[in-house]
Structures are given as C-alpha cells and as structure tokens.
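TL;DR need structure tokens for one chain.
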Amino acid sequence: MMVRNRRQFLKAAIGAALVSAAGGPSMADQNTAPPVIDSKFIHHDSVPDADLEKHMWSAPEPVWFDQAAFSDAHYPDFKTRVASCWSAQFVYLAFWCPYQTLTVYEGEDPTVERDRLWERDVVEAFIAPDPQKPSHYYEFEIAPNDQWMDIDIDLIRKPFNNPHWSSEFEHATKIDAVKHVWTAEMRIPIHSMSAEAIQSGKDWRINFYRCDGPGDDTVRRMMSWGRLPVRKSGGTFHQPASFGILRFVGKS
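>> reply
TL;DR here they are.
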C-alpha cells in the first residue's frame, strides 16, 4: 500500500512494527542476516559540502543497494552507494545516486523544511539508536536540490510522530549533470537523537531508502537497503524489523 499521506502511511505500519518490536516474527526474510555498514571514526569534524572526493570519505567502505523495496526487482543502473563516519558529536552519511532525470519541487526555499518530500526524488535514512526500542527511530530525508525534512517517530507512541522535533542536522547536495550522479552529505548531531556518547563497537539500527523518477509510486523506483517483504500491492518503509546494523568502528 503506497499511501502517501504521512499520517496514513505511518498508521499502516504500526501493526507490523509492533509485532516485530515485541519480538514477534519479522516481515522480512527470517533466514537473511541484517546488512551491516561500518561507520569510521574521524578526529576532526567538517561542515557538509557534498564533496565526496575529500579525504574523510576515502576511509569508510561504502555499502550499496539497488533492490526494489517491495518486489524481487533490481535497478542496477540506479545502484545507490552509502558510507558513514562518526565523531564525538556527529554521525555523518554520504550518498552517491545515479539518475536519468531529476524530479524535485522547483523554485522553493531549501532552507525551509519540506513536508511530503518523499513524493519526489529523495534519499532517506531511518536511525534507531537504541536496539532495544526498535519502534523509536529518527527519519532524515534529503532531495537532489538540498530540500530536507526530519521526523522523530515512535510507532507505539500517540501521536507517533513529533511535529515539533528538530535535529538541526546539516546537509548539502551536488548534481553532476555530465556523469548523471547526484551526491548528498548529512551531519547529524548525536545528542539530537537522545543518544549517549558513541563507543567503538557499539551498534545502532539503520535503514536506507531511495525514491527516484517521475510519476506516482506505481511507476517510480522505490529502493531499500534492508530487505522489505515482497508484496503484490506495495508496502511501507516503516518496518523496524527490516533495519540493518550501523556499526561504529575505528576508535580505541
């Protein structure tokens, strides 16, 4: 069910999420180990500028995904890479996104949070700092033109999203029209996610998604890093049982 009203979209996920959060069976393939992305420690912070050729992005090993979110299809021409770093104060994410055409909201102020950003081209990260509370996670979205939104979600809370929450995460994007790749960089304050100081070897839960292409969700490319269950008529991204592992490494 590709319901694009955010409230309806999340409400549709609550039943399945509560089952997985309570320790019930995952809607994803139980025989598949969750994917892992290593986040490399860095000593010096930097402001995002979407220059993914700089030194800090030479160390972390990217993961990639081209898996359709709700089917067995793959989109190899749109293989999306993601890498992560961390410091004492921030979690960093970098995205490399091949594209054919760009579908964005035109002529809007990118400094203002944009609701319904997921209806255009976008990359998303869902981050759950406490593995014991998989229903509580934070959603970060960024579009090729640097429009953005962030949401605090707890699927067992009423209301389940906090409209007043702001992570104050920083972000930047670049579009290479020659290579047909757009890149994005996020810097997320650790304290904004009510998380304790990160220690090397600590694991959080995370998933990455991408929406790409014009039209409605029946024809757009919807991709997920952590495998979502195959459905005949779509589904929802909001399934904590599908999240992979964000592993913090590199600091003694």
